[in-house]
Amino acid sequence: MSEPLLHHFDASPFSEKVRLLLGYCGLQWGSVHIPRVMPKPCFTALTGGYRKTPALQLGRDVYCDTALIVRVIEQLSETTSLVPLDQAASVRAMEELGDRLFMAAIPILFRPEGRAVLVEQLGEEALARFQADRAELFSGGSVSRPDDQFSRAVWGPTLATLEAQLAPQPFVLGEHPTLADFSLYHPIWYVRNNPGVRAITEGYPAVMAWFARMQAFGHGSAREVSEAAAHEIAADCNHWQPLMGEFDDSAGMAAGDSIAVHAVDYGVDAVHGRLVHLSAETLTLERKASFEGREIGAVRVHFPRDGFAFTSFDT
């Protein structure tokens, strides 16, 4: 089995979701640190232009979007069930609530107390670059960058709801953790990771006890892997990962068609390639990758169907 390589940066909340899942599932993984803001030339050489963090690499296969990455991790763990069949609808609803809570977290970090910490950590110039990068990230998609009014309407009521749900049980849906817990953990981690605004998470004892239980899973066993080494691993790999599900003919496309794929919410940069597989839940394209004139070779880039649009084009 190819070692999973996580392309991430330390402060990325969605990367923290995946890191914690890797720890919970007991997987050994390679840690590939990428830049916090664009340009990310080594990273996008593999993804074909997809810029969101993180991505998961298995040999010459690259998986984009945490919705797909967590399901790949579940398959790699073999024994861990993150989405029990009798709780699948509840898990999906909690995933969406986690996305909403993440959006509410963003403006909180830029309140005066949070911004002061960011300035101390990054400096004014780097923070300005970060804000410009995130403004570009939210340009052109269906989701606008949230404001503080949204945060005030969502953050407190959501944590109060979680407090009531967690009071009688250790995890969101009962006695055992599911993907619902990891989906709700990382927005709270994002805020708690900034000492200037951490107090907004206090006052919810059941939530904080649950947070501590989640945090105790840790990040598992990771080794540092350079971006150049990740490219070499892709170039040296001589096999593909299994494809997921039966081919979906309803979209009117066939394997080999030239397609462009992009997220619809934010970070809508398109990835171009040749369609390899299209199932009810996933889409896979193949493209030639290179970096600074050095050929990496063919890579396959995988996306979830939900949240992504795709179109055919003539080469």
Overview of this structure, please?
InterPro entries: Glutathione-S-Trfase_C-like, Glutathione-S-Trfase_C_sf, Glutathione_S-Trfase_N, Thioredoxin-like_sf. This is Glutathione S-transferase. Residues 2-81 form the GST N-terminal domain. Residues 84-237 form the GST C-terminal domain. The chain is an alpha/beta fold and 315 residues long. The chain has a domain at 85-203: Glutathione S-transferase Yfyf (Class Pi), Chain A, domain 2, CATH 1.20.1050.10. It is 42% helix and 20% strand. The chain has helices at residues 13-24, 41-47, 66-77, 88-109, 112-122, 124-137, 148-166, 179-192, 205-215, 227-236; strands at 4-8, 28-33, 55-58, 61-64, 221-224, 258-263, 271-278, 282-291, 294-304, 308-312. Strands 5-2-1-3-4-9-8-7-6-10 form a ten-stranded mixed sheet. α4 packs across α7 (148-166). The protein is globular and about 55 Å long. The two termini are 35 Å apart.
Short description:
With 315 residues, the chain is α/β, with parallel strands linked by helices. The chain has helices at 13-24, 41-47, 66-77, 88-109, 112-122, 124-137, 148-166, 179-192, 205-215, 227-236, and strands at 4-8, 28-33, 55-58, 61-64, 221-224, 258-263, 271-278, 282-291, 294-304, 308-312. Helix 1 (13-24) crosses helix 8.
Descriptive tags:
single chain, 315 residues, alpha/beta, Glutathione S-transferase Yfyf (Class Pi), Chain A, domain 2, 10-stranded mixed sheet, 10 helices, 10 strands, 20% strand, transferase, transferase activity, Glutathione-S-Trfase_C-like, Thioredoxin-like_sf, Glutathione S-transferase
